[in-house]
TrEMBL record:
Belongs to the TRAP transporter large permease family. It comes from Thalassospira povalilytica. Keywords: Cell inner membrane, Cell membrane, Membrane, Transmembrane, Transmembrane helix, Transport. PANTHER family: C4-DICARBOXYLATE TRAP TRANSPORTER LARGE PERMEASE PROTEIN DCTM, SIALIC ACID TRAP TRANSPORTER PERMEASE PROTEIN SIAT-RELATED. The chain crosses the membrane at residues 6-35, 56-75, 95-126, 138-162, 174-196, 217-238, 275-297, 317-333, 399-423. InterPro entries: DctM, TRAP_DctM. This is TRAP transporter large permease protein. The keyword Metal-binding does not apply. Part of the tripartite ATP-independent periplasmic (TRAP) transport system. The complex comprises the extracytoplasmic solute receptor protein and the two transmembrane proteins. It is found in: Cell inner membrane. The lineage of its organism: Bacteria, Pseudomonadati, Pseudomonadota, Alphaproteobacteria, Rhodospirillales. Its main location: membrane.
Amino acid sequence: MFTFFLILVVLAVLMILRMPIAFAMGISGFLGLAMQLGMKPALSVLERTFFDTSSSFILVSIPLFILMAELLTAGDVTRRAIIACQNWVGHFKGGLAMATVAASVLLAALVGSSTASTAAMAASAFPEMRRHKYHDRLSAAVVSVGGTLAVVVPPSIVLVVYGVLTETSIGKLFIAGILPGLLTAAGLCTVIKLIANRTDYAPKGDPFELRKAARSSVNVLPIALLIVAVIGAIYGGLTSPSEAAALGVMGSLIVVLAQRTLTIKGLGTSISSSIRATVMIVAIIACSAIFSNYLAFTRVTQSILEFVSTTDMSREVILALIVLILLVMGMFMDQLAILSLAMPLAFPTAMALGYDAIWFGIIATKTVEIGLLTPPLGLNAYVASAQTGVPLGTIFRGIVPFLIMEIIVLIGLIMFPEVTLFLPDLMGK
């Protein structure tokens, strides 16, 4: 047990020194294995773990979904989606902010990355809201919270990572994220409407013009069809997530080439960005597996499971403790780091308590999504502040009512699992 606490101290020190989470976990796990088994067996475990993890076929979906997002962003599709949503609902009080949330849902289904979605919204939607005299506190907050939808709405990279780490069906996770994502978006729009009715933060936008709105939607229609095709192929059991991702890349490339919005430079940037993001994610998954192997050899996971089976605490209390720990971790770490650190212990515990793996995945990702908004880290707030120039303190104050709504939605998903499991259950076994 002393060795285990020593390894935790090493991990904490490496993270405090700002070493990337992947390397911090890999080094700590390897040191633990070396102390537990000896250097030669530890090297053998290291070799086998890296090979087994990186050769997993399901990992193919990660670079493909990222490339799909990068192609659509480079092809100016995301900006056009925002403009289309604004033209439809931006003419009444709070309409531009609601349009930003609606565009965030569409963007989430395109990019799969929270920070990328936030950056795109900050560059496109925020200037429009400022031009229409929206208060900076509301505008920057909406941009920040809208970006978090990419954590739950498929094809979320966070859901892919959870599926790989826990060996859970990624296809069912994607389908399970649809209703919680839409429910979250509806909650955010409700908050915007309440703020718009009680303050002068969200005045009316430009008058509605049907022809202008319809014309702006033409360029977005192919993307909407592409999203339906990708998710529908998974839902219908026609393709695996990796195959659907390949179809998404092909469809994205066809769309941006047909619209003549993708340049050679943009194509090169998309490919290089996808490679960088993929290497980071795969490194996190592989190093997390090393740390998980160390936990397995030390029997820490088994000890926790034995404690859970003999404790007097109800499973609801234990689940609440897991959610609370994830929320606290979200104040200091990004979502992939949280999953890689927490799932080796949290997932077996949840399964031992009899919870559904798909449902727990949505609860866990929804919880780390909230962490993207909470100080002191609040990664989305930092991205929005850097893009818009609005002070961090102003953004965090604006986020508070949305944060309350996010927690209400999370509690609702915990209390009513059928909301999450309704669509996956329709898919069958």
